[in-house]
Design goal:
mainly alpha, extended, 8 helices, 195 residues, 2 domains
């Protein structure tokens, strides 16, 4: 397998930034767009993991993960995907078929090096399967949040005093309490991301 590098265009435009150590902080809008475009190319066109992209681009892995999440979010919004089960099932089935073929090939292989290469491919497929399940979970949370927001907007528009915390919960709270709960959750998420 030929290993791809970061595009020459990206390297040229970021030479000055690469020579100066980054101590955190914000990227300019132009730098962010270029970085996100390059991450999109490496992740979607070449199926590189966030770890590999961070290594190739010399960018913090959390930044790469954030940009990949940004692209998945944008793709979801562009396609208005609220029922992705069919595409996910097809994708998972392809992974399982590839994995099975590799397992069969391992049994036929005599060379240790070839076995190791095939096992790494299987590990990569397993990682992609887990990543798909993670994205499915993220999608379910996003849909639940969207549904709650729609229900709460409707209740507000119709002067209903209660608000739902989730579309499946039987608990209703006042609008003031819901705002406070949302603030607590946001603050807690910030604390988790800092750690």
């Amino acid at each position: 397998m030929v290993e791809l590098d970061v595009s020459d265009e990206f390297i040229e435009e970021n030479k000055e930034r690469q020579t100066m150590p980054k101590k955190g902080g914000r990227y300019t809008k132009q730098e962010r767009v270029k970085r996100q475009d390059e991450i999109h190319r490496l992740h979607f066109d070449h199926n590189y993991s966030a770890r590999k992209i961070a290594e190739l681009m010399k960018v913090n892995r959390n930044t790469v993960n954030s940009d990949i999440s940004y692209w998945y979010s944008k793709i979801g919004k562009n396609h208005n995907i609220f029922n992705p089960e069919a595409a996910i099932c097809v994708s998972l089935e392809r992974f399982q078929v590839q994995r099975l073929r590799l397992r069969i090939q391992i049994e036929k292989t005599q060379s240790f090096q070839e076995r190791l290469t095939l096992e790494r491919l299987i590990l990569d497929i397993d990682s992609r399967i887990m990543h798909t399940y993670q994205k499915l979970s993220d999608s379910a949370i996003r849909i639940s949040s969207f549904t709650s927001k729609c229900l709460n907007d409707w209740m507000k528009d119709h002067n209903k005093p209660e608000r739902v915390m989730s579309p499946l919960s039987k608990i209703t709270v006042s609008e003031k309490a819901l705002k406070r709960i949302d603030e607590i959750i946001k603050e807690d998420r910030k604390q988790v991301n800092v750690v």
